[in-house]
Amino acid sequence: MTPSRKWPIFGIVAGGVFMATMDSSMVNLALPTIMRDFSSPLKDTEWVAMIYLLTITSTLLTWGNLSDRLGRHKIYPAGLLIFAVGSLSCTGAPSLNFLIAARCLQGFGAAMMMATGPAIIKETFPPEQLGRALGLIGAAVSMGLMAGPIVAGFTLQFLSWRVLFIFNVPIGLAFFFLARRLIPQRRQSGDARLYWPAALAWIILLVTISLTITYTSSPIWSKTILSAMAAIVFLLLLSFIFLERRAPFPLIGNGLLRQRYMVTALLCAILSFMVLFAILVITPFFLDRVQNMSKIRIGVVMMAVPMATLILAPLAGWLYEFFTARLLSTLGLLMTTGGAFLLSGTTPHVSSPKIMAELALIGGGLAMFLSPNSASVLRWTKRQDAGKVAALLATGRNMGMMLGIGLASIAFSQTFSRLTHGLDMKDFTPSHTEAFMGALRAVYLTATGAGFLGMVISAMRGKRRP
Questions:
Q1: Residue 142, pLDDT score
Q2: CATH code of domain 3-182+251-459
Q3: Which of 226, 274, 351, 427 would staple 404 via disulfide (CB 3.0–4.6 Å)?
Q4: Which pLDDT belongs to residue 53?
Q5: What residue ranges of the chain have pLDDT lower than 50?
Q6: Alpha-helix residue ranges (DSSP H) falling in 344-379
Q7: What is each CA distance from 79 to 83, 102, 185, 310, 403, in whole angstroms?
């Protein structure tokens, strides 16, 4: 790759990442407003965020495999275009179900970008610059997360939440044309076949897991139904393993999940993003319901997470050139876990600077964790497996996001319902503040436990370079 094309290609990948993460952070902030507009309970409203993550998580491996066979130059631009079309569909959603369907379309586009972006970076930059390049991608993630609350705050204060999705359309179209022009036409294999039974089993497995987690807190689902769903999840997992082992073109294959450093990186990615998204999805409700903040002020407070990530992500990528992922990633998870634990002491009248400092600790920890964790795997990946491995890493991150949202809903809804004798968050009034704070604390402590487990796993990863 010539130096003259290296950075423009980086800009295309960073632009797609910026767009997808800005959208995610905007939607999290808009959930309380969407809930009011459609008069929907939390367990239904959260699907506006959940379906996006579920679609991404369940299809990443498919797109990663196809990019290895057909070429990233086809998959990545198509993802940009589909994301832009999905965003346009969200703006005119007449109902919550239509909005959820449009978010599903967005998720397909985002999955195509996420499955191919890191592989494009690996093929574009030399190995000694990979950690630094991924650190800069982390900065792009932070800028998207940082721009989201600002844009959402001003938009929700003066306009409709529908306007939020318009921003993605011109950005997506512009990067679509640039990607078609600049990304080199490389093809790993002329064989575009997939073993669809295994791919479909994987998708059905993740959808079933998501439904089980989401509706655990629903009063219409009995313990018998939930037990049956858990048994179905187990059977689907066995089915996927059976089909994957016999697939002529496996989704994962090549013994990737028998590598200790790969499994460790995936587990840590899942747990770190569980912590982050459990906190990102529930904290705006506290600021809106209990502290009665304006939408702009909520955006400013939530901006503490991406601001800290923006500052530390490039530093983490640079430090990986001198220190091991074991040290840097474990330190990052320690910071994130500490931030979640400090948030568990939140009171109804806590000051904004205190919340922002604790959120910044979480964001800074994620930055210190993410690029060393990803680089430690991609650094040793063969070129023909780059798309597959990038998709696995992205699957882990998005599975963590999905589980974080689901577990936050379970912890909050069950605790709030127990303390208010069956009420939902949409029924909140100031007289329920004490119950709200008890439920909020349950979410933060759940996140703390997930972060501690990730920190222990990260500390046990191999002592060699990864």
A1: 63
A2: 1.20.1250.20
A3: 274
A4: 76
A5: 190, 463-466
A6: 352-378
A7: 6, 14, 16, 25, 24
- Residues composing the chain: 466
For residue 280, give both structure tokens. Answer: 């990102």
The set of residues, in sequence order, having a beta carbon less than 8 Å from that of 149 and lying 6+ positions away, is 25, 26, 29, 298, 299, 300, 301, 302, 303, 306
| pLDDT score recorded for residue 464 | 46
Listed in sequence order, the residues at least 6 apart from 384 whose beta carbon sits closer than 8 Å to its beta carbon are: 68, 188, 189
Backbone angles phi, psi at 188, to 5 degrees: -75, -35
Interatomic CA distance for residues 356 and 186, integer angstroms: 45
Q: Are 122 and 380 in contact (CB under 8 A)?
A: no
- Enumerate the domain spans of the chain: 3-182+251-459, 195-247
Give the single-character DSSP code of 41. Answer: -
User: Can you tell me which residue has the tokens 């402590």?
Assistant: 445
Q: How far is CA 434 from the centre of its chain?
A: 31
pLDDT at 465: 45
Q: Tokens 């005119």 correspond to what residue? A: 92
Distances (CA, A) of 179 to 119, 183, 364: 14, 5, 31
Taking CA atoms, 339 is separated from 103, 279, 355, 356, 385, in Å, by 30, 10, 10, 10, 36
CB burial readout 91-122, b (16+ within 10 A) else e: bebeebeebbebbbbbbbbbbbbbbbbbbbbb
In the chain, what is the straight-line distance between the N-terminal and C-terminal CA atoms, in Å?
25
Residue 304: half-sphere exposure toward Cβ, Cα within 13 Å: 22
Round to whole Å and give the CA distance between 141 and 367: 10
What's the pLDDT at 387?
Answer: 61
Q: Distances from the Cα of 446 to the Cαs of 11, 59, 183, 223, 334, in angstroms?
A: 37, 28, 42, 21, 15
How far apart CA 347 and CA 341 sit, in angstroms, is 13
pLDDT at 385: 62
pLDDT at residue 466, rounded to an integer: 46
pLDDT value at residue 371: 75
Euclidean distance between CA atoms 195 and 208, whole angstroms: 21
Which parts of 303-432 fold into alpha helices (H)?
Answer: 304-319, 325-343, 352-378, 386-420
